[in-house]
């Protein structure tokens, strides 16, 4: 019998107040995991706690910026003391700054790299000792189409997500012998607050050009929803994927396989 159950497991999902993180945390909870999450703003932690309560999920929230190593260590120690050793880490917290490279300040580039790449490193480094002691662990990094492809204005984000793909492979390589599996999910274009600017209706009520572009580049001819990521997350968090390691599971409706629909 394939085991997709997460009963008795503790899952930390970073940045999981809404969007993709909330959907993944909900899925892990429905599979039996205890949920802990963190955000960098109190109002977002509060928003997340309200969302979990409405879902009937008893989640614990922390105010913690994933780029602050001392704060992450403190959060992980408190989780281990009050909830239990972390069995599953989902590095979901992330930001994007859409700025043409020649206009982007180095500090803006650094911030994206800090949150989207250094943050997952800091969080993984904090949970790995507990996973080694326990004899198992699951680390799931949230990569992106931009782990494979570039586009205008997202140089920092693509660099971070490309690096996150290689961090995934390196954690696999370095900790596989401790029965720790580190994989990634590569969402396609998902309808969340992060991509809302790309889907805004135009003044004349027509679709945003980028919205139409993504529809034409996706065989499924639709944007993804956070719910599309729930099953892949449970799979990678469960014993069903114990021999899957260093893999990026793209959940993109087929974008990476498709040259795109011929314009009419
Ligand atoms: P979102 O709606 O912008 O939510 C991001 C979450 O991360 C928020 O809860 C935010 O809360 C938190 N966060 C941001 N910076 C943080 C920090 N320094 N420390 C802790 N938490 C932080 O994003 P999303 O669309 O759900 O995306 C979630 C993840 O999926 C991101 O890594 C994103 O790059 C990736 N992704 C998204 C898509 C897409 O199409 N939406 C596709 C591929 C990959 P605070 O601001 O309060 O901290
Ligand atoms: C963008 C989008 C993408 C998505 C996602 C695609 O501006 O191109 O925000 O980066 O967020 O990462 O997989």
Output the strand order for the largest sheet: 3-2-1-4-5-6-7
By DSSP, the count of extended strands is 7
Structural category: alpha/beta
Rounded radius of gyration (Å): 18 Å
Give the low-pLDDT segments.
none
Number of helices: 7
Order of helices and strands: EHEHEHEHEHEHHE
The helix content, as a percent range, equals 40-55%
Q: What compounds are bound to the protein? A: NADP nicotinamide-adenine-dinucleotide phosphate, D-gluconic acid
Provide a concise account of the structure shown.
With about 260 residues, this protein is α/β, with parallel strands linked by helices. It has helices spanning about 20-30, 40-55, 70-80, 105-135, 155-175, 210-215, 230-235; strands at about 10-15, 35-40, 60-65, 90, 135-140, 180-185, 250. Bound molecules: NADP nicotinamide-adenine-dinucleotide phosphate and D-gluconic acid.
Topology (elements, then pairings):
Blueprint (H helix, E strand, L loop, with lengths): L9 E5 L4 H12 L3 E6 L2 H13 L5 E4 L5 H14 L5 E4 L14 H29 L2 E6 L12 H21 L4 E8 L21 H9 L12 H8 L10 E4 L13
Helix pairs in contact: 1-7, 3-4, 4-5
The structure holds NADP nicotinamide-adenine-dinucleotide phosphate and D-gluconic acid.
């Amino acid at each position: 019998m394939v085991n997709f159950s997460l009963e008795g497991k503790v899952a930390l999902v970073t940045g999981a107040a809404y969007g993709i993180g909330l959907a993944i945390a909900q899925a892990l909870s429905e599979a039996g995991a205890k949920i802990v999450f963190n955000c960098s703003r109190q109002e977002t932690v509060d928003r997340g706690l309200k969302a979990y309560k409405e879902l009937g999920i008893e989640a614990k929230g922390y105010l913690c910026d994933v780029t602050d190593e001392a704060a992450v260590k403190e959060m992980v120690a408190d989780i281990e003391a009050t909830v239990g050793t972390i069995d599953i880490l989902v590095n979901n917290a992330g930001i994007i700054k859409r700025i043409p490279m020649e206009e982007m300040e180095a500090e803006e580039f650094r911030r994206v790299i800090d949150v989207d790449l250094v943050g997952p490193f800091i969080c993984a480094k904090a949970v790995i000792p507990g996973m080694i002691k326990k004899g198992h662990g699951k680390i799931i990094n949230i990569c992106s189409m931009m782990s494979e492809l570039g586009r205008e204005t997202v140089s920092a984000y693509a660099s971070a997500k490309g690096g996150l793909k290689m961090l995934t492979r390196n954690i696999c390589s370095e900790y596989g012998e401790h029965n720790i599996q580190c994989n990634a999910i590569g969402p396609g274009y998902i309808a969340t607050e992060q991509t809302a600017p790309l889907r805004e209706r135009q003044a004349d009520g027509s679709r945003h050009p980028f919205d139409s572009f993504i529809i034409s580049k996706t065989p499924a001819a639709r944007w993804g929803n956070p719910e599309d990521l729930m099953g892949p997350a449970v799979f990678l968090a469960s014993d069903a994927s114990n021999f899957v390691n260093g893999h990026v599971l793209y959940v993109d409706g087929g974008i990476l396989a498709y040259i795109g629909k011929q314009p009419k």
